[in-house]
Specification:
Elements: H1 14-24, E1 28-29, H2 41-53, H3 65-79, H4 84-87, E2 88-91, H5 93-105, E3 111-116, H6 122-128, E4 132-137, E5 139-141, E6 144-146, H7 149-155, E7 160-166, H8 178-190, E8 194-198, E9 223-228, H9 229-232, E10 241-244, H10 247-257, H11 266-279, H12 284-305, E11 309-310, E12 318-322, H13 330-341, E13 343-344, E14 346-347, E15 363-367, H14 372-382
Parallel strand pairs: 1-13, 3-4, 3-7, 7-8, 8-9
Antiparallel strand pairs: 2-10, 5-6, 9-10, 11-12, 12-15, 14-15
This protein binds pyridoxal-5'-phosphate.
């Protein structure tokens, strides 16, 4: 039987594999980015209440009005006025929002620029829509990741249709500055491109403030802004997110969306709406920031003490830490770490395309979305590296 060529290069998700290895070796899992603390009480209560109050039948594919309104209220301070009924689509996590956006915007052969290292779903998602990913590498310079604008300019061709941006960034923890985003916006304008702005970590920044790309002059009409309730409320298994885009793009996205999930599970939409309404008033976002700040600092100290060159992330779920002090290649070291030391972390090279992997630093990605107890357990294990 002949399988479709578009899926032939798709290998099993490395996160699932690493988590299985971590379970097998009873390792502390700082590899996969899922929170490991108890779900907040108000979130659990919202989940329970939603089972009683939500419709258990089909809803409109775009999402229930209560949730559309709550997402608009969440994002209006960042990107300005939003028409909830015309400009928001509720999706199965940010992952399906990415797919719907690409399905709406990419024609076969269109080039889409991806900044590496990058969230691993971007390349397969572009390919699923018959687009061509084009890679531009961020450069680690003195503890910061720099966007080389000349390299970005050089990557733009007549076939370029758009760029996927991600800030706060996975895996580096970079938060793109206003100046950087303005430079990108100028190119977007000049070359008539669109932008998918993946802002799933927008509530988790430490020093630098998060700036939504759509807030830049003229960019709202060219941008799809993507978010994730799973990241905001530490419930990644709920599989719910959203995309905010101008009405014309939203209509096209909904066209694709209605044929893939049809709509997101009704009571999960209701629960998310309740959570957003409550979080707007109960101080949750400040508490979330504080939690992540403490965990980031604890993990950064732990990794530095263990001999890694840990970079200090400005936001998001992860720390990238150089392993120059250790011999062997990154994959082999990551395997040694999980099987012999008992700590799981992702090799940074997997966040690069095989064709560009020579640019990858010798480094691991560690998750800071883990409780202080988990980080302390990892610290204890990492002591073994010194013996
Ligand atoms: C940058 C980035 N975008 C999107 C996603 C996917 O989010 P969701 O779980 O809501 O599909 C992730 C998850 O790790 C991510 O890191």
């Amino acid at each position: 039987m002949q399988l479709a060529t578009r899926v032939l290069g798709f290998t099993p998700n490395p996160f699932t594999e690493l988590t299985a290895l971590a379970v097998k070796h009873n390792a502390v899992n700082l590899g996969q980015g899922f929170p490991d603390w108890a779900v907040p009480d108000f979130v659990l209560a919202a989940a329970t209440e939603s089972l009683k109050t939500a419709s258990h039948q089909y809803t409109a594919p775009r999402g229930i009005p209560r949730l559309l309104n709550a997402v608009a209220a969440l994002l209006e301070p960042q990107i300005g006025k939003i028409d909830p009924l015309e400009e928001i689509t509720i999706t199965v996590g940010a992952t399906q929002a990415l797919h719907a956006a690409l399905a709406a915007l990419v024609n076969p052969g269109d080039e889409v620029i991806l900044l590496e290292p990058k969230f691993d779903s971007y390349t397969p998602q572009v390919r699923l829509c018959d687009g061509v990913p084009v890679f531009v590498q961020l450069e680690p310079v003195e503890g910061k990741w720099i966007l080389n604008l000349d390299k970005l300019k050089a990557a733009i061709t007549p076939r370029t249709k758009g760029i996927i941006l991600n800030s706060p960034h996975n895996p580096t923890g970079k938060v793109f500055t206003k100046a950087e985003q303005e430079s990108i916006a100028a190119l977007v304008q000049q070359h008539d491109l669109w932008v998918i702005s993946d802002e799933v970590y927008d509530r988790i920044t430490f020093e630098a403030p998060h700036i939504s790309f759509a807030s830049l002059p003229e960019m709202r009409e060219r941008t799809v802004t993507i978010g994730s309730a799973g990241k905001i409320f530490s419930v990644t298994g709920w599989r719910i997110g959203w995309a905010v885009a101008p009405a014309q793009i939203t209509t096209a996205m909904r066209g694709a969306h209605q044929w893939i999930p049809f709509h997101v599970t009704g009571h999960v939409q209701e629960a998310t709406a309740i959570c957003l309404e409550m979080a707007a008033e109960n101080g949750y976002y400040a508490a979330l920031q504080q939690r992540f700040l403490e965990q980031r600092n604890a993990l950064h100290t732990t990794l530095t003490r263990a001999g890694f060159h840990a970079m200090l992330p400005e936001g998001g779920y992860f720390i990238v830490a150089g392993i120059e002090a250790y011999s062997g290649n990154t994959q082999a070291f990551a395997k040694h770490l999980v099987t012999e030391i008992g700590v799981a972390a992702m090799p940074v090279p997997i966040f690069y395309d095989p064709s560009t992997r020579e640019h990858a630093p010798k480094a691991l990605r560690f998750a800071i979305c883990k409780s202080l107890e988990t980080i302390a357990a990892a610290a204890e294990r990492l002591e073994r590296l010194k013996s």
